[in-house]
Amino acid sequence: MRDTDANADSRQVDLDDEGVHWDQAMSYGQYLNLETLLDCQRPLSHEHDEMLFIVIHQTSELWIRLCLHEAHGAAERIRHGDLRPAFKMLTRVARIQEQLIKAWEVLVTLTPADYLSFRDELGQSSGFQSYQYRELEFLLGNKNARMVEAHRAHPHHHERLLAVLHAPSLYDITLQLLGRRGFDIPDDRLERDWSEPYSASSLVEDAWREIYRDTETHWDLYELAEKLVDLEYNFQKWRFSHMKTVERIIGYRRGTGGTGGVSYLVKALDLQFFPELWSVRTTI
Ligand code: HEM
Ligand SMILES: N[C@@H](CC(=O)c1ccccc1NC=O)C(=O)O
């Protein structure tokens, strides 16, 4: 049976009725700088799957860019005790992290042989050199001055990483807020060499215990604690998925960045951002 004219019409939007602006001063592509963006995918090999590898990394870097924007914004609000906008930003970070975690499902469609077909092209480059990832780790509180060395050749990235290394992390800022709210936070957690890794304190755990036990009184601090736990929980999920994906794709080969590969990624799973927010769960 042939389609009637009416049926055929219903399969197309009538653009004349819509009032579409055909000639725009500012176009979609201009606003989003699409020509530049879509000119950034330059595979080095002729292997079909290298495009996937590039796009996964580039989209991840874009999401991390937004995570940094939101997490810096949240830190600034927490510094001023303005928690509601901080919650909104931290919730957004958690949603972005879900996207980053989901992306592994696309990447695992790459078989070991697919990846090995262009791996040599990568030389000694590695995710280890992701300056945005390192900034996010520093901002959340995983401080390690040696990680900055990998960025010596790029003064701009090097300087920025040093600045974030030497600034209080999201957790340091949170503990300062707890101090201002009357909790007994040790002086050496309120002011210290911020470039040093944070070490857990039983007084800080006591403070979180009080907040978790009496949520009615400390509702906003309890909510802040849970937002931070969401963030760390998602971060660990990302690290774990990365480690398992790497194991699935390159097995126990060494990494292009010079580490042991999977063994290095397993060690990174032990690094905690907000230690007392986890330990308090045993003592509450
Ligand atoms: C086939 C896919 C991948 C493989 C085989 C792989 C492998 C590795 C290995 C072996 C390391 C350890 C450093 C080294 O020696 O190279 C590493 C680190 C890293 N990779 Fe990947 N990776 C893959 C995909 C990704 C993706 C999609 C991202 C997203 C941005 C990413 C981000 C990172 C980061 C940030 C590090 C540093 C982690 C840290 O220092 O804790 N990797 N990767
Ligand atoms: N470290 C990876 C290489 C790698 O994955 C990579 C190389 C260049 C740019 C990003 C990468 N992704 C994450 O580490 C490997 O050993 O195969």
Automatic annotation (TrEMBL):
Q: Which InterPro entries does the record match to this protein?
A: Trp/Indoleamine_2_3_dOase-like, Trp_2-3-dOase_bac, Trp_2_3_dOase
Which residues does the annotation say bind heme?
242
List each coiled-coil range. none
* Cofactor(s) in the UniProt record: heme
Tell me the protein family, please. Answer: Belongs to the tryptophan 2,3-dioxygenase family.
| NCBIfam families per UniProt | trp_2_3_diox
The protein's name is: Tryptophan 2,3-dioxygenase
